[in-house]
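Summary for the lay section of the report: proteins are chains of building blocks that fold into shapes. Here we show the chain for F-box domain-containing protein and then a coded description of the shape we predicted for it.
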Amino acid sequence: MAESSSSTSNINNGSTSPIANLAQDHLFSILLRLPVDSILSFAMTCKRFRSLASSDTLWESICRRDWGHKQVDAFKYSCSQYQMMMMTVPWMRLYRQVTQLESVSCRNISDADGDLVLPNPRASHSLNFVSNCLVLFGGGCEGGRHLDDTWVAYVGNDFQGMLKWQKVNSGIPSGRFGHTCVVIGDCLVLFGGINDRGNRHNDTWIGQIACHENLGITLSWRLLDVGSIAPPARGAHAACCIDNRKMVIHAGIGLYGLRLGDTWVLELSENFCFGSWQQLVTHPSPPARSGHSLTCIGGNRTVLFGGRGVGYEVLNDVWFLDVYEGFFKWVQISYELQNIPAGFSLPRVGHSATLILGGRVLIYGGEDSARRRKDDFWVLDTKAIPFTSVQQSMLDSRGLLLNMWKRLRAEGYKPNCRSFHRACPDYSGRYLYVFGGMVDGLVQPADTSGLRFDGRLLLVELAPLL
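The coded shape description reads as follows.
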């Protein structure tokens, strides 16, 4: 009995275990190969292991492993002011806070005093974060008119401050709304859209930001040479960048108001001088729709959500686009709605869907089939969905995925319900900028339309406690 007690004590102290004799850098490498739950269990075995398993160095490496180097480096850049005060980032606490995300913090960072020149209220525009700048282009405004203006605001490392917008007069591309614009490298790639005469476009443009000491920020657009093959003209489609070099677009509203269901990929040359479009023909594929979202979650992996179908119904289906054995393939993901609180519905059109810190997708706003606009935030946990196989513990008795959705609390400033706004993250995914959209409210007391366009710039922050 005495021998048994002594043996147990030695194991708990780690003194007789072979792993206790390993060098710390070897232990570090082993821990980085383990799931987080195993690392936390390992930390309970002895004081030496507890110290290593809770170190900032290890947890920064875990964040890099699970979130990617680019997002972590960008997060450290966004925390520069915090680091000057605290000298270090509490990586373990950050990992837990992001993984167990319960809320987001909202702020109105529009000019409250009205001293600055601001973009006009609008919807169905584009908003992108590129070269440390926000770039706003086009959109629709009151009276069904399109806008052709471009606005730029430098962010730098002041992610929470009021931004000074600068209007850029280029004259091109022509005015439009319902277009898409994605960031590839340091460039913007814009496709399609609709003007106020109802004409659809299928042109592709490249935009580049430049900063000058005397001229400030300039943005130049040029029409991209794509040869003789291009997608049919459309608007209200969805797009994203994949594989750091390609743009994928899906569906939208084509000629005569016909909703499309096709998927196209644009591959750019190394110098961005020309590109080539290729249609992806797969079976199965998502039904035709418009006003949906398409979000890249790493590499070629893309998630599609919601929109309005051919019967004008509002959708809540989820599809993934990935590469299998060298070919693109659409896969529909069926899920259980058990975690959706009473009084809330997931189907929506005109929402935003953004990849955030931690590798999940943040869904915000939109409207339902009765045109009721929303102000809710949801996390779609794409990390819980393996592409090639699904563990049985993740499924219910009908084979539906569990725990895919989670509703978040919104703290701080309460934004209006809105749809057809635009949102974009900073490089880390910690901050999300939201501009414009159609919001509830009357333009004039006698106006019964209940429709107006918003011109506020909102900041949505994750991990606000750091």
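Put simply, here is one thing we learned. The radius of gyration is 24 Å.
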